[in-house]
Amino acid sequence: MKARVEPWGAWVAVRGDFDTTNRALVALDRVGARRLGISGEEVWASDALSSPSPPLEVHVSVTSRCAAGCSGCYVDARPRAEHVAAADLFARVDELADLGVFTIALGGGEPLEHPDLEGVAEHARKRGIAVVMTTSGIGLGRERARRLAVFEQVNVSYDGAGAVYESVRGVDAARHAERAIEHLAEAGVRVGVNVVLTRTSFEALADTSTRAAELGAREIQCLRYKPAGRAKSLDYLARRLAAEQILDFPNKIKYLQGSLGARTPRVALRIDCALVPWLVSSPELASDPDRLSAAGILGCEAGGHLAATTSSGHVAGCSFLPATRARNFDTRELQADPDLARIRDHALDPPAPCNTCALQAVCRGGCRVVAEHLEGPGAPDPECPRVVMYRRENAA
Amino acid sequence: MIHDERPCPSSTPAPGAADSEPSREWRAHIRSVRLGHGANCSSVGSVVDLLFASAVATSALLGAVAAALDEESAQGLRPDDAEPGTPIDAPNNAPDSAPDEAGDA
User: Fold this and answer.
1) pLDDT number for residue A370
2) Tell me, what's the pLDDT at B88?
3) Higher pLDDT residue, B27 or B22?
4) Hey, what's the torsion of the CAs at A298, A303, A308, A310, to 10 degrees?
5) Which of these, A25, A5, A29, lies nearest to A13 by C-alpha position?
6) Which residues of A touch B36 (CB under 8 A)?
7) Is there a contact between A150 and A117 (Cβ–Cβ < 8 Å)?
8) Chain A closest CA to B5's CA: distance in Å?
């Protein structure tokens, strides 16, 4: 068991049979933490204001190299780009282990291209960190799949079968992804899929999820399409979901969760932080932030529960945000970073209509990457249904 | 963001849900449960199983989490997958706000 003391109690990672997964990160109050034998009195007795907690999860880019050439690549990965040196990655793992980070997600570029990928993962595992990764699956054969058993889970980018995949990525590689899912499942590696939601892939989401589950995926992760890297173009406006699709999002995932949960074995459904604002169009969720919080739903946690490190070795609030100048997680340097400060301030003191939204404490003002790309710093997330409605009413 | 002392709203077992005494005791102290591994490398993901689950299913899942906690409690703190000597509850993070002792028995 791994645990980390927090001012309110402790985070505890536990193993067990939790229906669709074998791991849970539990927030326990102080009484519960004490009952578990966790000694946090020094922190709990202190009333001094200090630096925030380290992230729970850090996304580490191990390379900028990728030959897939996806049209919407959020890091603009290239076939001849450099890998991060193995020594730097080992040092990064040690730094994050010392901070008490629970999960490291290795990404890229294409992490399979890194010659020391499994070694880095093994080191993270030895340091008590759950290590996971995301891959396109291109070139992933049976032998390599077996070696990836060191990972707690591997997610394959899979936006849909055939033409749907190609419509999102601009490359015809769905079959590669499907074979990778099968190889990983056969090798006993827990495998999930990442589905980027565009106007096209959203309509195929149920079929995509069913297909992925049939291939052996145990988790479907829906990702909001974000204007970063090569996706930062006018094309973004044509690819993003239509307003009516966004309004239908809560219904869609509720239906999907029911259908995936009815499968044997059950398949988990996950949504990313940027999709949380879209839950506001659900009447049953819009006024119940406690329900979201209890279910462990996290909105924009950039620079909070979430952080990233780029292939240049810099720390960023998340993988989509520009890197800070900081090269390590020294909190003073990160606290002083103006971009992260702006994001923190936005979450604490958002503009209208977020300042009157019941979900704000969880949502934290929506996706800053989308909002800042479309409207600049300080703007509310313009794709949030509540923001759209507020503006419509005020324009009338 | 989890930063207060409120108990998990689903901390009361649903009618009809099997629940042991230790499970009931843990529930009062669980404030949030994040399921799974979060294997995406670009944005933080959250499993929505608990968000849309029925009261009985939620109760059963929280019961499983409570059972896992009870097992950990019985075994005592120990490093799992960690290097020998790794402090289990380290680092002790300094608080970012004054702790609310109201909910601290």
Assistant:
1) 96
2) 43
3) B27
4) 150
5) A25
6) 20-21, 23-24, 153, 219, 268, 270
7) no
8) 6
A63 CA: distance to closest CA in chain B (Å): 12
Return d(Cα A74, Cα A391) in angstroms, integer.
Answer: 29
Residue A123 exposed, middle or buried by CB count within 10 Å (0-12, 13-18, 19+): buried
- Best residue in A4, A129, A298, A346 for a mutation probing chain B (most B CBs within 10 Å): A298
Q: Do the Cβ atoms of A280 and A357 come closer than 8 Å?
A: yes
Residue type, A173: A
- B64 with A19: Cβ contact below 8 A: yes
Distance from CA of B87 to the nearest CA of A (A): 9
Amino acid in position A47? D
Could B30 and A26 be called an inter-chain contact, meaning their C-beta atoms sit closer than 8 Å? yes
For A86-113, b/e burial (b = at least 16 CB within 10 A) is bebbbebbebbbebbbbbbbbbbbbbbb
Could you report the predicted ipTM of this complex, rounded to two decimals? 0.92
Q: Which helix (H) or strand (E) holds A268?
A: strand A268-272
pTM summary value: 0.90
Per-residue pLDDT of chain A (396 residues; tens, 9 = 90+): 899 999 999 999 999 999 889 999 999 999 999 999 998 998 888 764 455 789 999 999 999 999 999 988 988 899 999 999 999 999 999 999 999 999 999 998 999 999 999 999 999 999 999 999 999 999 999 999 999 999 999 999 999 999 999 999 999 999 999 999 999 999 999 999 999 999 999 999 999 999 999 999 999 999 999 999 989 887 899 999 999 999 999 999 999 999 998 999 999 999 999 999 999 999 999 989 999 999 999 999 998 899 999 999 999 999 999 999 999 998 778 888 898 989 989 999 999 999 999 999 999 999 999 999 999 999 999 999 999 999 999 997
Cα(B53)–Cα(B35) distance, integer angstroms: 13
CA distance A223 to B26: 33
Whether the upstream peptide bond of residue B103 has omega within 30° of 0, thus cis, is no
From residue A99, alpha-carbon distances to A15, A40, A58, A241, A346 in Å are: 21, 15, 11, 38, 26
Nearest to A89 by CA among A122, A57, A55, A134: A122
